[in-house]
């Protein structure tokens, strides 16, 4: 029916100090931890894809 694509759920495990930092960061930005983690991952993945394909999105 051409609806909204379904996002895939993943699970990540972090050391307690990194998890605490992520929680505090999310709170400062008034975001859910999962939402912030997803945004960080998307940014890193996009950068990696650009590196691997040799493409620059600014071009």
Element order, helices and strands? HH
Radius of gyration of CA atoms, rounded to a whole number: 15 Å
Number of helices: 2
What percent of the residues sit in helical stretches (DSSP H or I)?
55-70%
Instruction: Determine the strand fraction and express it as a percent band.
Output: under 5%
The outline comes out as extended
The separation of the N and C termini measures: 35 Å
Could you give the count of β-strands? 0
What class, by secondary structure content? mainly alpha
Q: Round the mean pLDDT to the nearest integer and report it.
A: 91
Instruction: Report the uncertain regions.
Output: none
The largest sheet, given as strand count, sense and whether it forms a barrel, is: none
Write the layout of secondary structure elements.
Blueprint: H1 16-28, H2 33-53
Helix pairs in contact: 1-2
Question: Can you offer a commentary on this structure?
Answer:
By secondary structure, the chain is mainly alpha-helical. It has a domain at 26-53. The chain has two helices and no strands. The mean pLDDT is 91.
Essential attributes:
single chain; 59 residues; mainly alpha; 2 helices; extended
């Amino acid at each position: 029916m051409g609806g909204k694509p379904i996002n895939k759920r993943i699970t990540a495990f972090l050391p307690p100090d990194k998890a605490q930092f992520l929680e505090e960061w999310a709170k400062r930005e008034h975001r859910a931890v999962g939402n912030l983690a997803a945004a960080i991952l998307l940014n890193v993945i996009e950068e990696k894809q650009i590196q691997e394909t040799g493409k620059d999105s600014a071009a």
